[in-house]
Design goal:
heterodimer; A: Herpes Virus-1; 4-stranded antiparallel β-sheet; elongated; B: 4-stranded antiparallel β-sheet
Chain lengths: 1227, 151
């Protein structure tokens, strides 16, 4: 048996033969890797390891050798006898591992999404395991938060109950009292009426009797008089007199008696002391439930207790429920396991392609537009699968969702039950796969490793889409769609047979899991044509609009059924909500939804106390799910959208807020720390996607915030993500926008965009807020700096006044901000010794020339080189920065200096100020921008850059006439925003005004003074001198503002002050000249007179090394940015050449470069890079995080062919040399 | 570093399980491609009784290229120079992937019993070996005693 075994063993790999190939010498070896490795490619022969016989390799390669069939049979036989499992790699072909690039049997790795060899895979799995352990620790540490929350919730439940009980008792009490009062009064009134009636009735009856008596008396009297008052009867005279008297009296009575009808005609009227309607209203609204919200900002975040807290929790919980329902667990799946069932492989590549399509944030607009229909299906179609068999056409989009659908349905089938309602995290131990694994472990049948504890995946913020390559946008032509559809279908169907042989170990499981879709399901999923999805969406919309009437209706009765007087009362409580509804929801309203929840949530997370009506809506939603779900559906898109955006780019939130001050203000060690951190981060991060996070240069912060974020994402119920979301949304907004072709189908779509401006407002306000502390710290630093400067300041200005007044003088408050910034920076200084050195020396000098000794000052001034004059200007102006904050001091200074006092009209003088200010190459925007300082200006350039994309104008075409170019390279902005262009192959410098009008040119071909040979970089220093990198002459030339040659320095070589094809060039605030010495792979620094100061960088790709640095820029914070072209990155140095950070790597995604060339930085520190190889311009935050990109290859407007130099004007206009198009474009 | 190929693992295991008489090869703790080897001097050779230390390193493309072997213990041998380098064809052009650590070490042991002064590496030794074999053998014995027996 032993020998038998050895016969079946390849002597090269000492393993069982795999695909044994028979050499002519009758020795057999495995085809791969053994035979493969034996090949002598040069001689095209193979040497038998056993007998050293040499054989020619057949035409087809080693495959051409005959397979040793006998041996193979033996192998099979042996396997049968020994009962061995079939070789798992049998039938596979070796491939290069995508990680270690060894040839091996590769299998897709879920960790890195590549096909990798077993070893790398196990290494990855180890990494995953460790990370899971790590994250698990984090979770363990963080889980008490949930427990705390749970305790709080429990406490709040109790509180709520007691509270509500008390309130209910109160209400009952009031009701009783009111009822009693009402009854008493009613009874009283009733008796009053009765009594009144009785008396009146009695009186009337009495009167009636009397009248009747009178009537009868008079009647009888009359009769008697008629009958007997004649001669027949003898009446005595007295009798007659009396009779007459009686009759007279009767007449008088009759005449006078007047029935006072008024007395008895009185009507009883019931008069209310109050307007009954009002009274009813008062009663009807005799109480409000006022739910107070103690803390405006942290509504339900931390401190809020009792009712508020429980309410907000409740609200959030409701929202999440809605979300869940609205999405049918689908959106939630996506962040968690990418819509896969636990442990399932990722969808194979062809499908991935479609996944990309949906998962990219660029398409989130489309996504959110599309989702409702899917949700609709998932909830609706699924239940009607059977009768939904009339399938029409399919669209790409629905095909994609079909895949998801299948998986998701499975998820829903199996793992739904234990899914956490808030986070969507399900219990791993309920997953069939996990159960299986654990069973395996327990029973010890297999030595399978236990599946790692709780899932990191749901917790981990997965900015997945970020990483995905921006897919080429698909045309929505029908044939395209159907083509893709077919493709996908094919992929879906061919997926099984492919997989089965490839992963026989998993055979049983996939067979169970991936059972072919039942006809019904297929029908249902296929029945989702484009039209239908749109239709369903619309239907859905309609439904929602119908149903959303309900909430309105439920709200109405309280308001409209009662009289109008009631309304104000109701309003009063809901002012805030209605206000916000009106303000933010104006666009939303027409969708039929009252308000999108997301909107509200965001609103209240910022606005503070959420008034009652909301909770009323929500609680109504609780009781009856119908209105809520509809509410959710309409707003679903939005919320999903925002969440989506939020989760995909979690970092920007902390990034702009904190690192901005941090990485520029703090010491360089910290900076390197953080950059190191950010380098490590990608390694430790589970997914490469999170490189995006790491890229944001917030290293330690990141770790913390990741933790926090994890939690936040975990229960998805905190407002912080909302803020994040909103902040980030702005940044991604512009990318979302260009999907108008979907716009028509859905109104929720438009609502989303309708509400966008609002978001932006919020964002900017947020930004401002977050910026504020920054600004303040800057201010403090500035103040500190000012104190320090105070000593020498007056002397500085005295100095300046004595020497060249005009340059120093007109620096107005408008110029203050950048230089104040600078001052602040120096104060807290990464600035470095060089600067401080020069500063101190200058301070010495200026102390010498203090106002008490103006004569010496003048003398000194006269003796100063132009370089020193720079320094003086710089500091003079910096001294004047004080003007911004302390005009009084400035005026006193002015007084002491005998200068005209200009306190009020300082701004008026900013015209000539701007000249001088703009003369500074590094702060070209000084004059116009940043009047309000950083706090206010903080968000403006960013949004400005975000909007950038449209070409403003372009200058030039190919040619050698003025205004034409031949391969323009360097570009710079000079005083008054003039554009200075190195017209390289015309060997001249051309100058244009800010509108692109040709002003002048100078230089011609040659190597003499003022002549150029293919110049490259240009720079303009503070006093308007042109500094030109004369590339093929290997020197730097300096020209005065009129274009006259001043001096040149440098020659070819590698020593200090020598150049090898100097390329980009720039100057800093102090007038130092920085030259990219391209072929020497270094940057050299000179004084403005050409004296060599220092150099940094050497050939290589490590941090701090350079390979063909092309262009260079210095920020107002004295950060030196070098486009390290062949290393495809931008490196940031301090002025002493220490590396601060670096960003970008090779690639064409956001934040990646291909041979970046021009680099520029604005006065806010925003970095603009001419990403030459990708033919686009990229804009970065000061900390190096990506802001946006635009441009593509081509010769149209906004298209580029080979970018060169780039510069930023004071207004924020970006000017760039479009080399192969021989023009300059302005954005 | 890429993981260890199966072949190396197998060979190592086999070396451990079925050691070759007179030869021990133990992989280094921190590098599985580096072996500490001890070869006993073959009987009936001037090296008898000596324990010769060698180092053996498996290059990246092993087994497609030969292992690097070197004597650490000084040895008086016409095919082994003062630096311990070995002149052995299978370590050079006659390497075959079918050979193994085991076979290589056996070949080295065989080389000790059968010096080949016609293909010398240490010229002086080879010269003496050819001219005055007995003295050469005496030298070899002396060296063996001096360098290969003390420890």
């Amino acid at each position: 048996m032993e020998q038998f075994e050895s016969l079946l063993t390849c002597c090269v790999c000492l393993d069982r033969y795999r695909n044994p190939k028979l050499l002519p010498c009758q020795h057999s070896f495995c085809m791969e890797p053994c035979m493969d490795g034996l090949v002598d490619y040069v001689r095209r022969q193979v040497k038998c390891p056993e007998c050293r016989a040499e054989h020619r390799i057949p035409y087809q390669g080693v495959q051409g050798f005959p397979t040793n069939v006998t041996l193979q049979r033996f192998l099979e036989l042996h396997a049968q006898i020994a009962g061995e499992l079939p070789d798992p790699t049998a039938g596979q072909v070796m491939e290069r591992c995508n990680v270690c690039s060894e040839k091996a049997y590769c299998a897709p790795c879920a960790h890195c999404d590549k096909k990798v060899c077993e070893d790398c895979k196990s290494a990855h799995m180890e990494v995953l395991r460790r990370e899971i352990a790590r994250i698990n620790n984090q979770i363990r540490r963080g889980v008490n938060r949930l427990q705390d929350i749970l305790a709080v919730v429990e406490r709040n439940t109790a509180n709520l109950q007691t509270n509500c009980g008390a309130v209910a008792g109160e209400i009952d009490e009031i009701h009783k009292r009111l009822a009693k009062a009402l009854k008493d009064r009613t009874d009283f009134l009733r008796t009053e009426v009765d009594r009144y009636l009785a008396t009146e009735l009695r009186n009337l009856t009495h009167l009636k009797d009397n009248l009747e008596l009178e009537l009868s008396n008079i009647q009888s009297n009359c009769d008697l008089a008629d009958k007997y008052m004649n001669d027949d009867v003898d009446w005595e005279d007295t009798e007659l007199v009396d009779t007459k008297e009686i009759f007279l009296k009767t007449v008088e009575f009759l005449r006078n008696f007047d029935y006072e009808a008024g007395d008895y005609n009185r009507r009883v009227r019931f008069i209310m002391t109050h307007d009954p309607n009002q009274l009813v209203m008062h009663v009807a609204s005799y109480g409000e439930l006022n739910i107070t919200n103690p803390n405006a900002y942290s509504a339900g975040l931390q401190q809020s207790q009792g009712l508020t807290r429980s309410k907000s929790d409740h609200r959030l919980a409701t929202q999440f429920r809605q979300q869940e329902e609205a999405k049918g667990y689908m959106e939630n799946d996506e962040p968690i396991l990418g819509g896969r069932k636990f442990g399932e492989r990722r969808p194979p590549p062809p499908e991935k392609h479609t996944r990309d399509y949906s998962a990219t944030d660029d398409y989130s607009g489309y996504e959110s537009e599309h989702r409702p229909s899917r949700r609709f299906r998932s909830r609706f179609v699924r239940s009607h699968q059977q009768d939904n068999d009339s399938d029409t056409e399919q669209s790409t989009r629905t095909v994609k969702s079909e895949h998801k659908e299948k998986e998701k349905e499975k998820v829903a089938d199996t793992e739904d039950a234990t899914r956490g309602p808030l986070s969507g995290i399900f219990r791993l131990s309920d997953c069939p796969r996990v159960i299986q694994r654990i069973l395996d472990v327990d029973s010890g049948k297999k030595k399978e490793k236990k599946e790692p504890p709780p899932p990191p995946k749901p917790v981990q913020p997965t900015p997945q889409p970020q990483r995905r390559p921006p897919p080429v946008r698909q045309q929505s032509e029908d044939d395209e769609i159907s083509r893709l559809k077919r493709q996908n279908k094919g992929a879906a169907s061919s997926q099984e047979p492919e997989r089965l042989p490839s992963r026989p170990v998993e055979e049983e499981r996939p067979a169970v899991n991936r059972k072919p879709p039942t006809p019904a399901r297929e029908a249902s999923s296929e029945g989702e044509s484009d039209e239908e999805s749109v239709g369903s969406l619309q239907r859905n919309q309609r439904k929602s609009s119908v149903q959303t009437q309900k909430p309105t209706a439920t709200r109405r009765p309280s308001a409209s059924d009662t009289s109008s007087t009631h309304r104000p009362a109701a309003r009063a409580t809901s002012t805030e909500s209605s206000a916000s509804t009106e303000s933010s929801g104006s666009a939303v309203k027409h969708t039929g939804a009252i308000l999108s929840i997301a909107e509200l949530k965001a609103k209240y997370s910022i606005d503070g106390p959420s008034p009652k009506p909301i909770s009323r809506i929500l609680s109504a939603g609780n009781e009856r799910s119908a209105p809520v779900t509809t509410n959710g559906t309409v707003s679903g898109a939005q919320r999903v959208q925002s969440r989506f955006v939020g989760s995909q780019r979690p970092t920007p939130a902390p990034a702009p807020a904190e690192p901005a001050p941090e990485d520029s203000d703090t010491s360089s060690e910290e900076e390197t720390d953080s950059s190191e951190e950010s380098e490590e981060e990608p390694v430790t991060q589970r997914k490469p996607e999170s490189q995006a996070m790491a890229r944001s240069d917030i290293g330690p912060l990141l770790a913390r915030s990741t933790n926090a974020r994890n939690d936040a994402h975990d229960n998805k119920s905190k407002e912080t993500p909302a803020q994040t979301r909103y902040r980030t949304r702005q940044s991604s907004q512009t990318e979302e926008e260009p999907s108008p072709r979907y716009g028509a189908s859905s109104s929720s779509y438009s609502s989303r965009y309708g509400s966008k401006p609002k978001d932006e407002e919020l964002t900017s306000s947020l930004d401002d807020e977050s910026k504020y502390p920054t600004a303040r710290s800057r201010y403090l630093a500035l103040k500190e700096r000012r104190n320090r400067l105070a000593r020498s300041k007056s002397s500085h200005t005295g100095f300046g006044a004595g020497d060249d007044d005009d340059q120093d003088e007109p620096v107005s408050p408008t110029t203050a901000s950048p230089s104040a910034y600078l001052a602040a920076r120096y104060g807290s200084g990464t600035g470095g010794s060089e600067l401080s050195r020069s500063r101190s020396s200058h301070a010495l000098k200026s102390r010498e020339s203090s106002p008490e000794r103006p004569v010496t000052g003048e003398k000194d001034g006269a003796a100063l080189s132009s370089w020193a004059r720079y320094l003086k200007n710089k500091y003079g102006s910096r001294g004047k920065d004080r003007d911004t904050s302390g005009t009084s001091s400035s005026s006193s200074r002015r007084l002491s200096l005998g200068l005209p006092l200009r306190s009020a009209n300082e701004l008026a003088s900013s015209d000539d100020d701007s000249k001088n200010a703009a003369g500074s190459p590094i702060s070209p925007t000084a004059a116009t921008a940043a009047v309000a300082g950083f706090a206010a200006a903080g968000s403006s350039p960013r949004s400005q850059y975000l909007q950038k994309r449209r070409l403003q104008f372009s200058v030039g075409s190919r040619g050698s006439e003025p205004g034409c170019f031949t391969w323009p390279r360097g570009i710079a902005v000079g005083p008054e925003n003039i554009m200075v262009v190195a017209d390289s192959s015309n060997h001249r410098v051309q100058v244009f005004d800010s509108n692109g009008i040709f002003i002048k040119e100078f230089g011609q071909y040659g190597s003499g003074e003022g002549e150029f040979d293919c110049l490259a970089g240009v720079a303009v220093n503070r006093i308007g001198q042109y500094i030109i990198a004369d590339r093929y002459n290997h020197r730097i030339q300096v020209f005065d503002p009129a274009g006259r040659f001043l001096r040149s320095f440098g020659s070819q070589g590698t020593g200090d002050g020598k150049f090898n094809y100097p390329w980009g060039i720039t100057t800093d605030a102090l007038g130092f000249i920085y030259v990219c010495d391209k072929e020497n792979h270094r940057v050299q620094v000179f004084q403005s007179d050409g004296t060599f100061v220092g150099k940094f960088g050497s050939f290589g790709s490590k941090l701090g090394q350079l390979e063909h640095p092309h262009y260079i820029a210095v920020s107002s914070t004295n950060r030196v940015l070098v486009s390290d072209s062949n290393n495809h990155r931008i490196q940031v140095f301090d002025v002493n050449g220490r590396v601060l950070s670096s960003f970008g790597e090779e690639g064409s995604e956001d934040g990646q470069f291909k041979f970046p060339r021009g680099v520029a930085v604005d006065d806010q520190g925003y970095i603009v890079v001419a990403d030459s190889g990708n033919n686009r311009i990229q804009i970065f935050h000061p900390d190096g995080t990506f802001l946006r990109a635009f441009g593509s290859w081509g010769c149209g407007d906004g298209e580029f062919k080979g970018l060169e130099g780039i510069a930023v004007m004071s207004g924020g206009n970006i000017i760039v040399c479009d080399r192969e198009n021989h023009r300059v474009q302005v954005f | 570093m890429a993981a260890l190929p199966r072949r190396i693992i197998k060979e190592t295991q086999r070396l451990m399980q079925e050691p070759v008489p007179g030869i021990s090869a133990v992989p280094s703790e921190n590098n599985a491609r580096y072996f500490h080897v001890i070869v006993t001097g073959p009987e009936d050779s001037p090296f008898e009784g000596g324990l010769f230390k060698l180092e053996l390193f498996l290059p990246e493309d092993y087994p497609m290229s030969a292992p690097k072997v070197r004597f650490i213990t000084k040895i008086y041998h016409p095919n082994i120079d003062r630096l311990g380098r070995i002149c052995l064809d299978i370590l050079k052009d006659k390497w075959s992937p079918a050979l193994q650590i085991r076979t290589v070490l056996l070949s080295i042991q065989a080389l000790l019993s059968a010096p080949n002064p016609d293909d010398p590496l240490a010229n002086d030794v080879a010269e003496l070996w050819k001219v005055n074999e007995s003295e050469a053998i005496r030298n070899a014995k002396e060296w063996t005693r001096r360098y290969a027996m003390d420890n």
